[in-house]
Specification:
A hairpin with a 6-residue loop joins strand 6 and strand 7 (100-108). By secondary structure, the protein is α+β, with helices and mostly antiparallel strands. The chain has helices at residues 21-32, 55-60, 112-131, 141-151, and strands at 8-18, 38-41, 45-46, 51-53, 67-77, 83-93, 100-108, 154-165, 172-182. It has one domain (8-182): 3-Layer(bba) Sandwich (Pyruvoyl-Dependent Histidine Decarboxylase, Chain B). The protein has a five-stranded mixed β-sheet.
């Protein structure tokens, strides 16, 4: 039986600019280091027992032409000077025999920090609700983060975010953020 539960994953991001929209996306994948792979978008579960590794370590474990399962966020614009972002948030439970969550988020008009915090917030809310941790959605991110830390069930949250300002010449600008799973 084929075991498709990832043992490792790494985070990456990239930006691309080109007159053609698809080529701009290709350049973002190149910048992220995964253009030579066939990426398959999957839903957002951080596998039980999986280890988050560095991008450098992860890139050594993939081969050109391989199929890579990826949770990713992508955004693009050809509007000059428009601020755009893409982010993947992670929330991992303290008990690594349980699964965690990843979130995909993309936006316009938000800084990298704002988009990244929101992506973390989404992932943490999904994890908290699955663990039965109560929280007030109207509280600030910092208040919720403190509440979750007190519960002792959420180990850590983090994000990988790429932002950019639309190309001044109106060429397509693509931002890409991803968690790449290694089986």
């Amino acid at each position: 039986m084929l075991d498709l539960v990832a043992k490792k994953l790494f985070l990456t991001r990239g930006k691309g600019v080109h007159p053609d929209r698809l080529t701009s996306f290709e350049y973002a994948l190149r910048d992220a280091g995964i253009a030579g792979t066939n990426i398959v978008l999957i839903s957002s579960i951080f596998p039980p027992g999986a280890k988050l590794i560095s991008k450098a370590e992860g890139l050594k474990l993939i081969r050109p032409g391989s199929v890579q399962f990826v949770i990713y966020a992508r955004n693009d614009t050809n509007e000059p000077h428009r601020l755009l972002a893409s982010s993947v948030g992670i929330a991992a439970p303290k008990d690594n025999t349980k699964y965690g969550y990843l979130s995909e988020y993309h936006s316009f008009g938000e800084t990298e920090k704002e988009a990244g915090e929101y992506a973390e917030d989404i992932a943490a809310q999904m994890l908290a609700s699955s663990l039965g941790i109560e929280f007030d959605v109207n509280k600030s991110w910092d208040e919720k983060k403190q509440q979750w830390k007190i519960s002792g069930q959420i180990y850590k949250t983090r994000n990988i975010t790429q932002s950019a300002v639309g190309d001044p010449q109106g060429r397509w600008t693509t931002v890409f953020s991803a968690a790449v799973l290694i089986l």
